[in-house]
Amino acid sequence: MIIHLVLGAPREEPLILDYQSGDLCVGVDYGAIYLLNAGYPVDLAIGDFDSVTKHEWQQIKKESQRVEKFQADKDDTDTELALLHALNLSDEAPIHIHNWIGGRLDHFLSILYLVYQERFQAVLSRLVFCSPKNSLRVYQPGHYQVEQDHPDNYLSYIGLTPIKSLTLRQVKYTLESADYDVPRALVSNEFLAEGQPAEFSFESGLLAVIQSRD
Q1: Which domain holds residue 50?
Q2: What's the predicted TM-score (pTM) here?
Q3: Pick from 99, 146, 165, 170: most CB atoms within 10 A?
């Protein structure tokens, strides 16, 4: 099972999810309309819904299995509330966050900065930030293998903090026990062959791994 969080950033192309029977869909504010218009079920619609019309609000209430509406004046963002509720839906299911790129820059940064919040540290390994040509995962110290999402993907390692002893193996551009005192973006690396996972490890810090294609 995957929990799909669909956010409300402006979009022009139709919403397409890697959805399978048994998955759960959470529409965050206008994201609920994107889900309904694309024909996906809305297991939970959540937010202050200040971006929807009266007609769309009626549609959300009628066609969603469950609705949680909050006041616009609140301490948590709609995305933070949605993630907190998603964690209560399952203790282990991956959480794919869709439609998070686009629209206001402050919204984009507030979503990315979720990974720094103490209350979400224990579930970072479950989060995947998705877009049609990108996926972003955040890792805590350890040793990992990365499977290729798409044959044309580039592989980038983005330090979100200083990083100690970063090692990259089974990629075109390898690295051995490198330390970075400030966040550093190592972009446009490549998998060696289709079906062969890349490997990386580091001893301290927070690292984003992005797969992307043109």
Answers
A1: 3-132
A2: 0.93
A3: 99
